[in-house]
Design goal:
It holds the Pfam family SAMP2. The chain is mostly beta strands. It has one helix and seven strands; from the N terminus they run βββαββββ. The chain is globular and about 40 Å long.
Length: about 60
Amino acid sequence: MKVFYEFKTYEFDESMRGYDLLKKLGLNPEEHLIIVDGELYTEDRVIKKDKEVKIVKVTSSG
């Protein structure tokens, strides 16, 4: 899979759950969204290795 996060591109040659992908990248699952081919994925959903993934950091202000 090809993963885009903060102007960097990562490639993985395996399918994995969203949670595992975020952990491999050292990212907190509570602070990031996983978008696969334009669709929002939950962290427990498996992302197939042929997909394009965009990771988006969630920000809030209060």
